[in-house]
Design goal:
- The chain is α/β, with parallel strands linked by helices.
- The protein is 39% helix and 13% strand.
- It contains 14 helices and 9 strands.
- Strands 1, 2, 3, 4, 5, 6, 7, 8 and 9 form a 9-stranded mixed β-sheet that branches.
- Strand 6 and strand 7 form a beta hairpin.
- The two termini are 18 Å apart.
- The model has no long low-confidence stretch (mean pLDDT 95).
């Protein structure tokens, strides 16, 4: 195993939290390093737990902080952004950043985007216009996103990742440091119009940095080198290249990028047994009262112990090869 990938997806990560723990208990101890972690948005937040000295405790802190987040009746972008900062600080604790940067096995890499032109504005009207323009041109070609956004790969400079030379979009490459790690984690989860972008990240070009999922929603990248595999715990059974491709069923990753990727995801039958028969998502903040949302999200995490147990049994009985299907 050479890489572990984590996608954007907001609250959907809760369906994976128990699986993350199973991976950390059953797979990670046997891995030969270095192992690259590549995440955008919530995937990067999960991996900020993976690469701490006590990753299980970090995930449990993350679960609690994420599920228990509360807001006023009509929260604005500043309140939501401040709450996100609070969650990250709780996850990292006093020494999490240093542990991530010095981890003996994992090399943490995070993808964000640097906004260009009007998409760098925090004016809602201008930013909305920029996003609509990007979405429209994306229908024609994904490459047009480069007119509006620049990839920003923040990488662990101890080992260059397999995707360091990724092409297709303008990209700057910036070493992760103790001075920029928290800002980078916040930036890659900064959903436009929902959270404020992060300005002028230390070591990077001046500018406004936002959600890495805009370009790399599910990572249409060369995940791993030829002789190693990528493990991809995911909440979908398919990889959607970019944020604007969610409803574009024909938009798929390059086959060579996923030919050595093992994707693990919950089945439709499993999802049907979750609270409200769905994976949690950001709309739950609007559709449920705070108490209803917290109950449903806690119920999802509890139910997903079944998913983790099945995965553990597959490993113990050496059934992984028999369960694989082509993507």
């Amino acid at each position: 195993m050479g890489t572990i990938a984590g996608a954007s997806g907001g609250a959907r990560w809760l369906v994976l939290s128990q699986l993350d723990k199973a991976i950390l208990r059953n797979i990670v101890p046997g891995l030969q390093g270095p192992v690259h972690l590549i995440g955008t948005s919530i995937g990067a937040w999960r991996f900020a737990c993976y690469a701490q000295n006590d990753p299980i405790s970090a995930i449990e802190r993350f679960e609690a902080a994420y599920i228990e987040q509360t807001y006023s009746d009509n929260p604005d972008i500043h309140e939501i952004t401040a709450k996100s900062r609070d969650v990250i600080k709780r996850v990292l604790g006093e020494n999490g950043a240093n542990e991530i940067l010095k981890h003996s096995l994992f090399r943490t890499h995070i993808m964000a985007v640097r906004s260009r032109h009007i998409t760098a504005s925090e004016n809602r009207w201008l930013l909305s216009l920029g996003l609509m323009s990007a979405a429209t041109l994306n229908l024609i070609s994904r490459k047009t996103l480069g007119l509006f956004f620049e990839r920003a790969l923040f990488f662990d400079e101890r080992e260059l990742p397999p995707f360091f030379g990724a092409t297709g979009f303008p990209m700057q490459r910036v070493p992760l440091t103790s001075r920029n790690l928290e800002d980078v984690i916040v930036a890659t989860g900064a959903i436009p119009l929902v959270l404020s972008g992060v300005e002028n990240i230390h070591g990077a070009k001046p500018g406004m940095y936002r959600d890495g999922g805009i370009i790399d929603y599910h990572h249409d990248l060369a995940h791993s080198v030829a002789e190693r595999l990528t493990l991809y715990p995911h909440f979908h059974d398919r990889i959607i290249p970019g944020w604007f491709d969610k409803r574009l069923g024909w938009r798929r990753p390059h086959p060579e990028h996923v030919e050595r990727t093992i994707l693990i995801s919950p089945s439709a039958e499993f999802v049907a047994r979750l609270p409200n028969a769905k994976i949690p998502d950001r709309s739950d903040f609007l559709n449920y009262t705070p108490a209803e949302r917290v109950k449903a999200w806690r119920g999802c995490v509890a139910a997903c112990a079944e998913l983790a147990d099945e995965f553990t049994q597959v490993l113990e009985k050496d059934q992984l090869a028999a369960r694989l299907q082509p993507m």
